[in-house]
Amino acid sequence: MHSLWLDTARLGISSSMTTDTDTSDLPTEAESAAANTPVEADTSPKHGAYAPGFAARIGLAVGRKLPAGRTGLRAAGAVRPLALMGLTDGRSDVEALGLKLRLHPKDNLSEKRLFLTPQCFDPVELAALRDFMAPGKVFVDIGANAGAYALVAARAGGPSSRVIAVEPQREMRRRLLFNARQNDLHNIECSAVALSDYEGEEVLRMVEGNRGGANLTGAGSGEGEAVRVTTLAKLAVELRLPRIDGAKIDVEGGELPILAAYLKATDASAWPSLLILERADLGDRDAPDAAAYALSKGYNIAARTRMNVVLTR
What we know:
By secondary structure, the chain is of the alpha/beta class. Helix content is 31%, strand content 19%. It has 2 domains: 54-120, no CATH class; 123-312, Vaccinia Virus protein VP39 (Rossmann fold, 3-Layer(aba) Sandwich), CATH 3.40.50.150.
């Protein structure tokens, strides 16, 4: 039953919860069915329980004063060991992007960047997203990873906006849901599917040392999770999305099949007015990547960065 792979439950926090122990990062029952695995009790305390120690705070203070760009990222290597000192279970509670975040910087590159140098974390793209989001808008974060885009979109759009975080990796959904709840963001939904241009099931392969590098191509450590694969158009129907106003697609090289299948399946009047895509070679408008394909369909470049392109129509 493919429908078991889909988590459509909205986030919520019980008003009766009064203890310091926060079990809200437990997957919901719907997500448990989506992952098709048993859920063990999680007694993780609320944000603040894993505060950085003295040495780590010094490293973080230095890292967060570095320039926002490649220079800052290169220089961050010198203070990273200090910032990572004394992490409990590899996690740390910090503030970044205007959010309270529990991050795991030792096993995920995105979380490492958010932890030490949040000013370097896609500042152009996130600024465009904040400017774009508004009450009532629908944003889909495809390849949500730790959820930076989804969390920023949910905060910027307000309670009446709707944010869909598409993330097939169970552990990353758990982390995202925890951080959403710590920031009282109830307008985020998680979908446990992987998106492409076909319907089926695959194995999501993990990459050692970087959970954000998980992929469907077979490259990885050999460990993996079985996931449902579907199309964005079908997911939108299943989630009863009235439309998709904006989307970010970053799935380790699988962006083009997702975008092309969606644009072919929908009328141009329903296409997202904002796209944030991982870029390849934008010098050739016929290059086989998602950004070049979007350009051929009438999108315009609003901004280019080293890793991504922001497109509007």
